[in-house]
Write a structure and sequence with these properties.
It contains seven helices and eight strands. The protein is α/β, with parallel strands linked by helices. It has a single domain, classed as Rossmann fold (3-Layer(aba) Sandwich). The strands form two sheets. The chain has a six-stranded mixed sheet, with helices on both faces. Strands 1-2 form a two-stranded antiparallel ribbon. It starts with 8 loop residues before the first helix and ends with a helix.
């Protein structure tokens, strides 16, 4: 099965073909214990054409959200990548959309540790490759706000749907994603890429986390 070139589902199939989706028993930090599915979205950086296409998917999604009669995303001046996985996504998007990029220096927390060019009160969208609980995005937003920047939105390639959207909403951040874990699972199951047992096990895990 080959998915539509115009669909975000292309990304789900691409991640599968790159070996970025694995099934087993994984503990991924404090927010994903005993997960039957592991996503390594960073594999995109080894395939420039796919990373380029992913950046276009993000650009199209954001443009559509901003163009709605009731816009679902604010306009922004800068894009900030979350170290380290988000840096690649933000860079690809910056080059595609011609939006200047900044990022937090991963080894320095003191004032002035933001790399790039920015001005007080400029609005920033935060980008990452993957979000689970939302902690990294929340921390990035806090430091950007401390530097006088405005953060209202975040965009990720994949949302694992494990509480990040709700947590970030409480911090005044609107989280959007190109894909959710549920969409990826349904895509791979419908395309015949995975066995039903892994689909069921992963969906049960996802549903349990929502409850």
């Amino acid at each position: 099965m080959v998915l539509s070139d115009n669909s975000n589902l292309w990304l789900a199939e691409t991640l599968w073909r790159l070996g970025a989706v694995q099934f087993g028993d994984f503990t991924l930090g404090r927010t994903a214990v005993g997960s039957p599915i592991y996503l390594n979205v960073r594999k995109l950086i080894g395939h420039p054409t796919n990373l380029w296409r992913a950046a276009h998917v993000i650009h199209e999604e954001i443009t559509a959200l901003q163009s709605m009669r009731n816009p679902q995303m604010d306009h922004f001046d800068l894009v900030a990548g979350v170290p380290l996985g988000g840096l690649h996504v933000a860079t690809a998007y910056s080059l595609t959309a011609k939006v200047p990029m900044i990022y937090l220096h991963p080894d320095r927390a003191e004032e002035g540790a933001i790399e790039g060019v920015f001005e007080h009160n400029q609005q920033v969208i935060i980008m990452d490759d993957l979000v689970t609980g939302g902690g990294s995005i929340a921390e990035t937003a806090e430091r950007l706000r401390e530097a006088g920047l405005v953060v209202k939105d975040a965009f990720v390639l994949v949302d694992r749907q494990q509480g990040a959207r709700e947590r970030l909403r409480k911090d005044g951040i609107n989280l959007r994603s190109a894909l959710t874990l549920e969409v990826i699972l349904n895509c791979l199951m419908a395309g015949g890429f995975i066995e039903e047992k892994w689909f069921r096990r992963s969906m049960d895990y996802l549903d349990a986390g929502r409850g």
